[in-house]
Design brief:
Largest interface: A-B, 31 and 42 residues
CATH topology of the largest domain in chain A: Aminoglycoside 3'-phosphotransferase, Chain: A, domain 2
CATH class of the largest domain in chain A: Alpha Beta
Number of strands of chain A: 9
Strand order of the largest sheet of chain A: 1-2-3-5-4
CATH superfamily of the largest domain in chain A: Aminoglycoside phosphotransferase (APH), C-terminal lobe
Strand content of chain B: under 5%
Shape of chain B: flat
Oligomer: heterodimer
CATH architecture of the largest domain in chain A: Alpha-Beta Complex
Helix content of chain B: 55-70%
Number of strands of chain B: 0
Largest sheet of chain A: 5 strands, antiparallel
Strand content of chain A: 5-15%
């Protein structure tokens, strides 16, 4: 059940990813967004995988998420769960082209860990199946506190403290996971404590070159600073890549699942801390992700992980994270400008490039 | 188009908010509508009727003015039309291109300093970096002062506070 999809004999004509585009190149809903067709396709696929009939009773598109398309799926005939999540990486998405495999492999490997996460069932990058790379996982019960609109300030008292404990402990568990003893060992051949930072800088530099619509001196300044201040990692760990308020589910004051693993990779674990420390995720509070003070978070993380956090490396990864966030906004601008996606969240997101550049400017002033 | 651009945008926003969004079903669709409002607010802070549109109007006046010169001698006491359209007024596209070319040169200088700073005179490097920092700061300040208040909560949830 946890393996990537096996080849299926497809009784229906394939759904084409390319059908997401009209003849004039403008964005248009793809056939994989046709709920009726998708229901049938997914039912066929799950039936094929399980060897017994599975019916998809309901597909509901979720509004959350800027990248993958997420559907809530109700099924009958699928023994492990009646409620599933289907995630599709559309050809017009923020980080397209997509592969479902990193997220699927990470979730599968972490099944033996203490990290709360959805159980992954199937995944495939074969667009002939559902029209886009996809994975299917368990639907975990819970709500998502969001970082904007001051909702972080609503996380008060016992609830906040409980979520903070789970948030920190889950991160420590993730970073402590012995990936070398798992199927993720295949990722580790080229990542070392010496090049972990450099690999990430290079990866995001390439994305910058792909996404920028015009020259951005601030980004060049940040890349130059990062190049001159790379820390050596204390260890190589699984890095979530987007660990923050807004990317976990909670129920009864407990985190029930860490979500959105699309940027998962091997690297310096302090990278996740740098990302979580961003002001954007403080929800109007002074607390990291609206959950804990910087000092409390670091103290608990160090106690749980048994590893001290190099404050210089943390500063480096905060600068890196601000740059990464600004580039994500650039990706949104590119995606919309190219006409790949008419989702109004994209240009809205792109407007945040300047505020993030301003924070980057301040961070570099403090670091110089 | 007889109304001012800001008023038109205000009217579109009010219509979306008051007449359309309350009747739209689904959080995602309403979130998209709030995205429209946010983008309209953003456009309102930066947009004006285009240079090209106004230039054509000015050139028409210029031509009429020149043509009338030959007639005015036969119309003593009539008000003279003396408007001259400025020549070589850049279009918005040309201005944007000039800005991008300049910013690209700044980027090249930043990259050059990053790789040559060790061999370059420290005082000159520091002076150049200070000028670049001030340039970036001024650009960001302008960008931020002409940006609308974000509406990510409304876009994500498909509803406004108190709604």
């Amino acid at each position: 059940m946890m393996e990537a999809t096996r080849k299926q004999s497809n009784p229906r004509p394939p759904l084409r990813a390319g059908s997401a585009f009209s003849d004039d190149g403008s964005a248009r809903g793809g056939t994989f967004e046709d709920v009726g067709a998708l229901r049938l396709r997914l039912g066929d696929y799950l039936s094929e995988q399980t060897g017994s009939p599975v019916a998809v009773d309901r597909l509901v598109k979720f509004p959350a998420g800027f990248s993958w398309i997420t559907y809530g799926v109700s099924v009958t005939g699928f023994a492990p769960a009646a409620e599933l999540i289907l995630r599709l990486g559309p050809p017009y998405g923020l980080f397209a082209p997509y592969s479902a495999m990193p997220e699927f492999l990470a979730l599968s490997a972490l099944r033996s860990s203490a990290v709360p996460r959805p159980r992954a069932f199937y995944a495939s990058d074969d667009v002939a199946i559902l029209g886009a790379p996809f994975f299917v996982c368990q639907r975990v019960d819970g709500d998502t506190p969001l970082p904007w609109g001051g909702q972080g300030s609503a996380l008060d008292g016992d609830r906040r403290e409980s979520l903070a404990r789970d948030f920190i402990d889950s991160l420590a568990a993730l970073h402590g996971f012995d990936w070398r003893a798992s199927s993720l060992a295949q990722w580790g051949e080229s990542v070392t404590v010496d090049n972990a930072a450099a690999l990430q800088i290079e990866e995001w530099r390439q994305r910058f070159q792909r996404w920028a619509l015009r020259p951005h001196p601030m980004a060049h300044l940040a890349f130059a600073w990062l190049g001159q201040n790379q820390p050596k990692a204390s260890r190589v760990a699984i890095v979530h890549g987007d660990y923050r308020l807004g990317n976990f589910l909670e129920r009864n004051d407990r985190i029930t699942a860490i979500l959105d693993w699309e940027l998962v990779h091997l690297g310096d674990p302090i990278e996740d801390l740098g990302w979580a420390f961003l002001p954007q995720y403080r929800g109007g509070t002074g607390l990291v992700c609206g959950l804990a003070s910087e000092a409390d978070l670091l103290a608990r993380y160090e106690a749980r992980s048994g590893a001290s956090v190099d404050r210089g490396a943390l500063k480096f990864y905060i600068v890196f994270s601000l740059l990464k966030l600004s580039l994500t906004h650039m990706a949104a601008a590119r995606c919309f400008e190219d006409g790949r996606f008419n989702d109004m969240r994209m240009p809205a997101m792109a407007t945040q490039m300047a505020p993030v550049f301003r924070q980057l400017e301040k961070a570099l002033e403090r670091s110089s | 188009m007889n109304n001012s651009l800001p008023r038109l945008i205000d009217g579109m926003i009010a219509t979306l908010r008051g007449e359309i969004i309350p009747h739209v079903e689904g959080d995602f669709a309403r979130g998209q509508a709030f995205g429209l409002i946010y983008m309209l607010n953003s456009i309102r802070l930066r947009a004006a009727w285009s240079n090209e549109f106004l230039c054509e109007q000015l050139q028409a006046l210029d031509e009429a003015s020149r043509d009338l010169e030959g007639v005015m001698t036969d119309l003593p006491g009539a008000p003279a039309l003396t408007l001259r359209a400025p020549s070589g007024l850049p279009t918005a596209v040309e201005l944007e291109s000039m800005r991008d070319q300049g910013a690209a040169r700044v980027c090249e200088l930043i990259d050059w300093l990053a790789t040559h700073r060790a061999g370059a005179p420290a005082v000159a490097v520091a002076r150049a970096e200070d000028i670049i920092d001030r340039y970036i700061h001024r650009q960001l300040k302008w960008e931020l002062s002409t940006s609308a208040k974000p509406m990510f909560d409304e876009i994500s949830r498909g509803s406004e506070k108190g709604a």
